[in-house]
Specification:
The protein has helices at about 15-30, 45-50, 55-65, 90-100, 120-125, 165-180, 195-215, 225-235, 245-260, 295-310, 315-330, 345-355, and strands spanning about 1-10, 35-40, 70-75, 105-110, 130-135, 145-150, 155-160, 185-190, 220-225, 240-245, 265-270, 275-280, 330-335, 345. By secondary structure, the chain is of the alpha/beta class. The longest helix is centred in the N-terminal third of the chain and has 19 residues, at about 15-30. The protein binds nicotinamide-adenine-dinucleotide.
Length: about 350
């Protein structure tokens, strides 16, 4: 199989971790007889430095022409003081929108070999955790109308709006229901329906759509504040969490931390077709950038999701996940997941070890 992959390394640790992902994809190509080509493109702070904006037109055009996209991370202190329109994060939101990627799937899994890395007590995690957050990605408050104005008495005042349509809610519900059918057939839909009108529409729509099209899938509801608490109280109760853009952003980071390190968590973003955008859920980690300290596993597992969800290469995806499990079982650890008695390795070595085990 021939596939062309656009690589948006971005800022901070982005180049280090995407290099790790490429090394593993090259090992997969060699082992299974595929031909993958990689095209580096600019996004985020490095794009601002080179072109004046976070998402050059060329990046959008080339991503739309590629079979899939691998992204590192964007942002860093260098660009923190820029105005909203030319901030690095704008590039991220822009590429998701331009590619029509409305669903974001973030599996938070506690790997057996890393049980000690979870901050929760053993009885809470000993039976394993695998929470998949299905997050709506192109609507809600991150894309709603916003503004600021001078209020005489109170000073500068700013506002953002949360807005959802039935169409937006139905298409993300479909993604969650399809996933549920391959797993526990249980979805917990998370909202704030006791307060927000948009959440009440979310709740009504999720139920009516799922009952009509997926009667075999059981949907229950949970308020977001309770969900945040339940993730640390009893994470094993969850399989699929379906939620809005902002709630999904926050809950998936929480779920990630419960499973050990944010450096382990992958994500895939898809729209209607098979071309997706695959990225770790963490940021550009400026505190460790350029020091060969980053954990590349989140990016490598994102590449595994690309193989499965964009290219339909199920066996190849399994080979990557098995290689990651083996390296962890053999005791190799990057600094973020290191514990006494383990073998500490850097970003490059970790990727190399995984590639060797494909
Ligand atoms: P972050 O995820 O970059 O870092 C949080 C902490 O986790 C840091 O201590 C970091 O060292 C550590 N960490 C993150 N990834 C790691 C990895 N792979 N291996 C080892 N340790 C890792 O979040 P932050 O510090 O809040 O944000 C830093 C920058 O990243 C900001 O500019 C922010 O806007 C940006 N950001 C980008 C994305 C993205 O590109 N998708 C997401 C979140 C934050």
């Amino acid at each position: 199989m021939k596939k062309h992959i656009a690589v948006l390394a971005g800022d901070g640790i982005g180049p280090e971790i995407t290099n790790g992902g490429i090394a593993v994809l090259e090992a997969v190509a060699k082992k299974f007889g595929h031909a993958f080509t990689f095209e580096p493109l600019l996004i985020g702070g490095c794009a601002i430095d080179a072109t004046g904006g976070p998402l050059p037109r060329e990046t959008v055009d080339r991503c739309l022409a590629a079979d899939s996209v691998l992204l590192g991370a964007v942002g860093g202190p260098k660009w923190d003081r820029l105005s909203g329109e030319i901030r690095p994060e704008k590039g991220l939101l822009g590429i998701r929108k331009a590619m029509g990627l409305y669903s974001n799937v973030r599996p938070a899994k506690l790997w057996k070999a890393l049980a000690d890395a979870s901050p929760l007590k053993t009885p809470l995690v000993e039976n394993g955790i695998e929470i998949i957050v299905v997050r709506e990605l192109t609507g809600g408050i991150y894309f709603g109308k916003r503004g600021s104005f001078e209020d005489g008495a109170c000073g500068e005042t700013a506002w953002d709006t949360e807005q959802y349509s039935v169409t937006e809610i139905e298409r993300i519900t479909k993604i969650a229901c399809e996933l549920a059918r391959k797993r526990s057939k249980r979805i917990v839909s998370v909202d704030k329906a006791n307060v927000l009108e948009s959440s009440r529409l979310w709740r009504r729509t999720v139920h009516s759509y799922a009952e009509k099209h997926y009667p075999d899938v059981a949907v229950s509801d949970m308020l977001v504040d309770n969900c945040a608490m339940q993730i640390v109280k009893n994470p094993a109760q969850f399989d699929i969490l379906l939620t809005s853009n902002m709630f999904g952003d926050i809950l998936s980071d929480e779920a990630a931390q419960v499973t050990g390190s944010i450096g382990m968590l992958a994500s895939s973003s898809l729209g209607d077709g098979t071309r997706g955008l695959y990225e770790p859920i963490h940021g550009s980690a400026p505190d460790i950038a350029g020091q060969n300290l980053a954990n590349p596993i989140a990016t490598i597992l994102s590449c595994a999701m690309m193989l499965r969800d964009s290219f339909g290469l199920i066996e190849e995806c399994g080979a990557v996940e098995t290689a990651v499990a083996r390296v962890l079982e053999e005791g190799y650890r990057t600094a973020d997941i290191f514990s006494a008695g383990m073998k500490k390795v850097g970003c490059r070595k970790m990727a190399e070890l995984i590639a060797e085990r494909i």
